[in-house]
């Protein structure tokens, strides 16, 4: 017992500097000091467990390996006690009074290298213990080493420049940190407040944490266990706990990687897409951990935007433990994590789509929207995402889908483009005039039912070197079909074109005989190449400018159709009647394209036509 007398020590100059920064500017979220002290306690318990393997003579050997947190709102104190490895008097001086330990040393070194007062920098280093001084009037550390022949000691400081060491009696093994809180930090002496903080940051610490005698952490850090040891129910329970969810997970990816970063990740796709239900935009919900301790519950850049439906945990040992949310500036590291995880998840979806196509189809039904968003906007992952897209087509049954890759395998050698049509549903696309010409030429057409689809297709542009082409675009050129008998002659067709142009006036930009029509007499194509009929409908729905400009369309007619042949006869025999028919045909084409806004004139005209029947 050579050091029995109370002793007063000055902090090393560097520690003073450190304390000043920690107290005044390190973390804007004071509550993280609890996370730091609990992490230290957990480390100390881990070290004890290790020591137990080789050492027989351990002080207080019967103690549970646990962490006990107690609050006292009368005394305004918070106490964090662990039964870990503890510290001897010399270790207290070394660990808490000097800058010998790694984290703080590296921190100060970086400060010395010109980073002084750079708050982005400070968060990246381990200065855990000292964070207590953000909230403390004074801190007492009662410590007893695992070595039986060492006395217990208490280290006391108000963080201003010096600390005191005293021998203490009746200490248990380990460390007990008693924080006398500043007057405006009284919340941390409240059970509910501390409970909230422990649940947030320390829920998965391996050792039991008790708050005022009640166990806090009951769920294991499942992501660090090996996959084949984990039961399905455990995964579900973890998902519900971690994501605050009530549903069951739809898909799950549990993986680890060593290079380029050490990562353990457990990711879930929920059953339901709440964004689709019209609820607000999802927030990032894959939390970032470092060795079971939470760093950030909602890291913004950990995953690309379009993966915001994912839940779960990413744990990387390579993260500096003391990184704090608002100072998490290590962009390069986060970018690396982002890259590795996104790539792995895309691979997982690709495997799912091949190994469990039905499950994938259900997933796609619910979450396909996000994949489309990614395909359209995330240039880095566009190619992989485009492969994951699924559409109904003119060759699939209703409700069944195809990938673009499968579409390509069905293309004939002369087909150069991938065709698609956008419409509200299958029936409306099938009965519209745009499909029949492609159908007659055995060209498969993808059916797109969502309003974003046109935007997505425009951005994706091509797949496997083939252009994605809207089949209702006026540029689409189709191969000739053998001309059926009884079509209007070329001369008559020309005459009719001229007459239709005159008759319809400003309502049409161009009139021509069509190759693509088989069963319908006419079709309308938007004269404005940049705006498809569907786009125009969308702009109208959104009240966008341009949607109300006078509509001019290209009218194509089918010279083989009975109505057209009849029209040719009537246009000389009964010009007045023929004019009504021509106008009505144009309106019919506009209706099919979803472009007729006002039906009143149309109905008046139709009634007039009916009179003469
Ligand atoms: P870091 O944990 O990054 O090393 P800290 O300032 O939090 O930095 O702690 C400094 C040192 O004090 C630790 O490395 C450890 O050796 C010792 N220490 C802190 N808390 C405890 C504890 N509860 N039990 C035993 N040793 C501890």
How would you describe what is shown here?
With 613 residues, the protein is an alpha+beta fold. It folds into 4 domains: 7-215, Histidine kinase-like ATPase, C-terminal domain (Heat Shock Protein 90, 2-Layer Sandwich); 222-359, Ribosomal Protein S5, domain 2, CATH 3.30.230.80; 391-470, Rossmann fold; 490-611, Heat shock protein 90, C-terminal domain (Four Helix Bundle (Hemerythrin (Met), subunit A)). It is built from 19 helices and 22 strands. Helix 8 (331-355) runs parallel beside helix 10 (382-388). The longest helix has 25 residues, at 331-355.
Key words describing this protein structure:
Ribosomal Protein S5, domain 2; 38% helix; 19 helices; Heat Shock Protein 90; 613 residues; 5-stranded mixed β-sheet
Can you give me a brief rundown of this structure?
With 613 residues, the chain is of the alpha+beta class. It is built from 19 helices and 22 strands.
> What do we call the CATH topology of the largest domain?
Heat Shock Protein 90
Query: Which molecules other than protein and nucleic acid are bound?
Result: adenosine-5'-diphosphate
The level-1 CATH class of the largest domain: Alpha Beta
Counted up, domains total 4
Main-sheet strand order equals 1-6-5-4-7-3-2-8-9
- Please identify the structural class as seen in this structure: alpha+beta
Can you summarize the main beta sheet?
9 strands, mixed
Can you tell me the CATH architecture of the largest domain? 2-Layer Sandwich
Task: Give the strand content.
Answer: 15-25%
The dominant shape is elongated
Radius of gyration: 36 Å
């Amino acid at each position: 017992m050579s050091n029995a007398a109370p002793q007063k020590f000055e902090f090393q100059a560097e520690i003073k500097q450190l304390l000043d920064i920690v107290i005044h500017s390190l973390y804007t979220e004071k509550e993280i000091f609890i996370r730091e002290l609990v992490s230290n306690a957990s480390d100390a318990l881990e070290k004890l467990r290790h020591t137990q393997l080789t050492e027989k003579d351990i002080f207080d050997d019967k103690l549970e390996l646990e962490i006990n947190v107690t609050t006292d709102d009368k005394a305004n104190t918070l106490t964090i006690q662990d039964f870990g490895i503890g510290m001897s008097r010399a270790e207290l001086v070394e660990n808490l009074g000097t800058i010998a330990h790694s984290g703080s040393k590296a921190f100060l070194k970086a400060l010395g290298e010109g980073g002084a007062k750079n708050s982005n920098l400070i968060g990246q280093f381990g200065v855990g213990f000292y964070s207590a001084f953000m909230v403390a009037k004074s801190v007492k550390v009662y410590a007893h080493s695992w070595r039986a022949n060492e006395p217990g000691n208490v280290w006391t400081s108000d963080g201003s420049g010096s600390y005191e060491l005293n021998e203490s009696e009746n200490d248990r093994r380990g460390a007990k940190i008693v924080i006398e809180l500043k007057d405006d930090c009284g919340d941390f002496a409240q059970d509910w407040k501390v409970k909230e903080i422990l649940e947030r940051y320390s829920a998965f610490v391996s050792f039991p944490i008790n708050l005022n005698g009640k166990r806090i952490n009951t769920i294991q850090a499942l992501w660090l266990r090996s996959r084949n040891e984990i039961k399905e129910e455990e995964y579900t329970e973890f998902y519900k706990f971690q994501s605050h969810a009530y549903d069951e997970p739809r898909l799950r990816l549990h993986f680890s990687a060593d290079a380029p970063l050490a990562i353990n990740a457990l990711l879930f796709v929920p059953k339901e897409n709440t964004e689709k239900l019209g609820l607000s935009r999802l927030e990032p919900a894959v939390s970032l951990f470092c060795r079971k301790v939470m760093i950030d519950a909602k890291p913004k850049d950990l995953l690309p935007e379009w993966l915001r439906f994912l839940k779960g945990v990413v744990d990387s040992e390579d993260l500096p433990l003391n990184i704090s949310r608002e100072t998490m500036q290590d962009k390069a590291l986060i970018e690396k994590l982002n890259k590795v995880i996104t790539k792995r998840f895309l691979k997982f979806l690709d495997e799912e789509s091949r190994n469990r196509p039905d499950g994938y189809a259900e997933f796609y039904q619910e979450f396909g929207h996000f994949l489309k968003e990614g395909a359209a906007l995330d240039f880095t992952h566009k190619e992989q995402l485009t492969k994951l897209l699924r559409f109904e087509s003119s060759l699939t049954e209703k409700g069944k889908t195809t990938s673009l890759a499968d579409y390509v395998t069905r293309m004939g050698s002369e087909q150069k483009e991938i065709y698609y049509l956008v419409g509200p549903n299958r029936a409306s696309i099938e009965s519209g005039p745009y499909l029949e010409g492609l159908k007659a030429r055995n060209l498969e057409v993808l059916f797109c039912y969502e309003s974003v689809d046109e935007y997505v297709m425009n951005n994706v542009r091509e797949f496997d070197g083939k252009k994605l082409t809207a089949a209702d675009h006026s540029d689409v050129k189709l191969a000739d079909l053998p001309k059926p008998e009884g079509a209007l002659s070329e001369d008559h067709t020309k005459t009719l074109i001229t007459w239709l142009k005159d008759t319809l006036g400003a309502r049409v930009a161009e009139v021509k005989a069509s190759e693509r029509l088989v069963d319908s007499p006419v079709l309308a194509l938007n004269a404005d190449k940049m705006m498809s009929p569907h786009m125009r409908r969308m702009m109208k729905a959104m009240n966008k400018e341009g949607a109300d400009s006078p509509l001019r369309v290209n009218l194509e007619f089918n010279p083989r159709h009975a109505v057209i042949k009849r029209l040719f006869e009537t246009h000389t025999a009964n010009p007045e009647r023929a004019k009504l028919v021509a106008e009505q045909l144009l309106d019919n084409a506009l209706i099919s394209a979803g472009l007729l806004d006002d039906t009143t004139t149309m109905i008046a005209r139709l009634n007039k036509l009916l009179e003469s029947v």
